[in-house]
Amino acid sequence: MTAQVETISETPDSPIHVLIVDDDALLRESLEQNLIDSGFTVSGFSNGQDALDHFSGEVSGDLMLLDWKMPEMNGIEVLKHLRARKIDVPVVFLTVLSDQIYEEAALLGGAVDFVEKSRSFAILRRRIELILDRQIPDRNSNETSGEIEIGALQLDPDSSRALWQSNRVDLTLTEFKIVHHLATRSGTDIRYREIYDLVHGEGFVAGAGDDGYRSNVRTFIKRIRQKFRDVDSDFDAIATYTGFGYRWVATDKTDG
Question: Which domain does 121 fall in, by range?
Answer without folding.
Answer: 4-135
